[in-house]
Design a protein that fits this description.
Pfam families: Pyridoxal_deC (PF00282)
CATH topology of the largest domain: Aspartate Aminotransferase, domain 2
InterPro entries: Aromatic_deC, PyrdxlP-dep_de-COase, PyrdxlP-dep_Trfase, PyrdxlP-dep_Trfase_major, PyrdxlP-dep_Trfase_small, Pyridoxal-P_BS
Cofactor: pyridoxal 5'-phosphate
CATH architecture of the largest domain: 3-Layer(aba) Sandwich
Number of strands: 11
Number of domains: 2
Family: Belongs to the group II decarboxylase family.
Radius of gyration: 24 Å
CATH class of the largest domain: Alpha Beta
Oligomer: single chain
Keywords: Decarboxylase, Lyase, Pyridoxal phosphate
């Protein structure tokens, strides 16, 4: 493909994407296809000769788009958002065009150095302690997901502890976290060789919006110590998946310090909100952390994947994850004058992800990004008030950020505390194609989650979603 062919194809692709966003509200938010649908539509083997771009676009429209769940739809309220933006999209395009494999500084100096600069910018936006900056012993790196971030932090913590207690102590190492902590922690423990019975998930307090209490964590640690176990890792969450709870960071940090434990903070969802002054207090206590993570690809207009991890002392990551085969040796690395991010992560190869985050920060600016976050929180407040005004529903936990947990109150005749009633309401709403929302279970109750955060969502979409839920609830209650 020469430059003119690229120009023509690129223009057509951008037109396709622009038309997609222009018409995104016409598609069912949740894909309505059945399992195995695509196998019936595509041939069994790859084409032996090239096809035309027009034929490919036709197949995308007719066969691929029906199987897409539209995360960028203004009527998407499920899970947590995964934001896209013009700036993020353009950055992703440019990264794909350069197509570097930036495992070490020498493979593309700009990729490493821009990542260091942008992570320092972001740390300052969040008012993280100076120890997390590249100018100190720590620094930041872009991981693929929060799952990768917690894994590399866990591996660094494990190896730090084993150097102190001996390699044979692995079976005694214990991880502590709330039972509301993301399941990625449990997977990280499986990969890191932490015994399943040594992953202690402490029951969260329903009276504190399902945050864990320091007393419960201290009690669990004390019990483990009596059995000769070694507490080595505490994971706290700012914005849990089920209810956006915020664990008590200062107290958990002090507990970790008292027992020489690694303290990791997962702020994958809610970390973005903490660039706003009125939400920054949720990070109070981060000064006690050894590592801190948030996902720019969730609520920060940065296309997936872009998970930001900061550590207070990068040497622990490097000691745990570094390899130095002959074929990767080079003058800059050997002189220790550069950062090689291959030693801070699981894979060797890495994409130029800092480019899209840099472009988002440059093309929007911090003030506009703060306004963007605040707008979604205001829309969630609006939805929360709509729910409160209808006596048939209840808000289950106090709203902290842009997630509203609610449910249709069970009927007196219900034997399952409204589980089927709310499941059927959610299923009917999602099957309509008009909105998409997800659920959780809190204290045995089936709860609906309404997470505001899609880039195109406005008040009219929130109101329309609520009217749909009201109408469907009325039909369900009438037929019960």
């Amino acid at each position: 493909m020469d430059a003119e062919q690229l120009r023509e194809c690129g223009h057509r692709m951008v037109d396709f994407v622009a038309d997609y966003y222009k018409s995104i509200e016409t598609f069912p938010v949740l894909s309505q296809v059945q399992p195995g649908y695509l196998k019936k539509l595509l041939p069994d083997t790859a084409p032996s000769k090239p096809d035309t771009l027009e034929a490919l676009f036709d197949d995308i429209r007719e066969k691929i788009v029906p199987g897409v769940t539209h995360w960028q739809s203004p009527n998407y309220f499920a899970y947590y958002p995964s934001n896209s933006s013009t700036a993020g999209f353009l950055g992703e395009m440019l990264s794909a065009a350069f197509n570097i494999v930036g495992f070490s500084w020498i493979t593309s100096p700009a990729a490493t150095e821009l990542e260091i600069i942008v992570l320092d910018w972001f740390a300052k936006m969040l008012k993280l302690p100076s120890q997390f900056l590249s100018t100190a012993l720590g620094g930041g790196i872009i991981q693929g997901t929060a799952s990768e971030a917690v894994l590399v932090a866990l591996l660094a913590a494990r190896d730090r502890t084993l150097r102190k207690h001996g390699k044979t102590s692995l079976k005694k190492l214990v991880v502590y976290a709330s039972d509301q902590t993301h399941s990625s922690l449990q997977k990280a423990c499986q990969i890191a060789g932490i015994f399943q019975e040594n992953v202690r998930l402490v029951k969260a307090d329903c009276n504190k919006n399902y945050a864990v209490t320091p007393e419960a964590v201290s009690e669990a640690i004390a019990t483990g110590l009596l059995s000769g176990l070694i507490p080595f890792f505490i994971c706290a969450t700012v914005g849990t998946t089920s209810s956006s709870a915020v664990d008590p960071l200062p107290e958990l940090g002090q507990i970790a310090k008292a027992h020489d434990m690694w303290f990791h903070i997962d702020a994958a969802y809610a970390g973005s909100a903490c660039i706003c002054a009125e939400y920054r207090h949720h990070l109070n206590g981060v000064e006690e952390a050894d590592s801190f993570n948030m996902n720019a690809h969730k609520w920060f207009l940065t296309n997936f994947d872009c998970s930001l991890l900061w550590v207070k002392d990068r040497s622990y990551l490097i000691q745990s994850l570094s390899t130095n085969p002959e074929f990767l040796k080079n003058k800059a690395s050997q002189e220790n004058s550069v950062v090689d991010f291959k030693d801070w992560q699981i894979p060797l190869g890495r994409r130029f992800r800092s480019l899209k985050l840099w472009m988002v920060l440059r093309l929007y600016g911090v003030e506009n990004l703060q306004s963007y976050i605040r707008k979604h929180i205001e829309l969630a407040k609006y939805f929360e008030q709509l729910v409160i005004a209808d006596s048939r529903f209840e808000v289950v936990t106090p709203r902290t950020f842009s997630l509203v947990c609610f449910r249709l109150l069970p009927l007196a005749s219900d034997q399952d505390d409204g589980r089927n009633l709310n499941y059927d309401l959610m299923d009917a709403a999602n099957s309509s194609g008009k909105i998409f929302l997800s659920h959780t279970v809190l204290s045995g109750k089936f709860i609906l989650r309404f997470a505001v955060g899609a880039p195109l969502t406005e008040e009219q979409h929130v109101f329309a979603a609520w009217k749909l839920l009201q109408d469907l609830a009325s039909k369900q209650l009438e037929s019960s």
